[in-house]
Write a structure and sequence with these properties.
By secondary structure, the protein is mainly alpha-helical. 62% of the residues lie in helices and 8% in strands. It has six helices and three strands. A three-stranded antiparallel beta sheet has the order 1-3-2. It is globular and about 50 Å long.
Length: 154
């Protein structure tokens, strides 16, 4: 058997997932990449903008841009932190809470589509193995000592 890179499959699934979300979110004001912000802000109201960036592995400037767009669309409120005046806390709005069940259903439907025909044991195995891979990738991100543009030097 010829070895095929796992990343090839993961990347292709990711691109297909992005298109699926774009199709399902058509007609809302959300883009296919914004759902993750809604999920996390609803799960953890008051999360800091920086904390959100770390949690979803997106650089701070992109998070700030996406949150500004979500705020102007009425999905989140950003408030200067009382504890740290430099920090920004993010809160869901009623609009976020209202669309949250749709987003969760969309993700469940996609998972079901991808695993159609799998036994429960196969689904659990895939989830467990991908969870391990996720944890390793997250560990890498947490242990990085440098910004990507620094050439790897501390």
């Amino acid at each position: 058997m010829v070895y095929t890179s796992l990343m090839k499959f993961i990347s292709r699934i990711s691109r297909c997932s992005d298109q699926y979300r774009a199709d399902r979110l058509a007609g809302t004001e959300l883009t296919s990449s914004q759902y993750v912000y809604i999920l996390n802000v609803c799960r953890e109201p008051g999360i800091s903008q920086d904390g959100l960036a770390k949690k979803i592995f997106v650089n701070k400037s992109n998070v700030a841009r996406q949150l500004a767009a979500l705020e102007s669309s009425g999905y989140v409120n950003r408030i200067t932190s009382v504890a740290d005046r430099r920090g920004i806390e993010v809160y869901p709005t009623e609009k976020s809470e209202k669309i949250l069940p749709f987003i969760r259903g969309m993700l469940r439907d996609w998972d079901s589509y991808l695993t159609e025909g799998f036994t429960d044991e196969e689904k659990e195995t895939v989830a467990r193995l991908l969870g391990i891979m996720h944890d390793r990738a997250a560990e890498y991100m947490e242990n990085r000592c440098c910004e990507p543009d620094s050439g790897g030097k501390a």
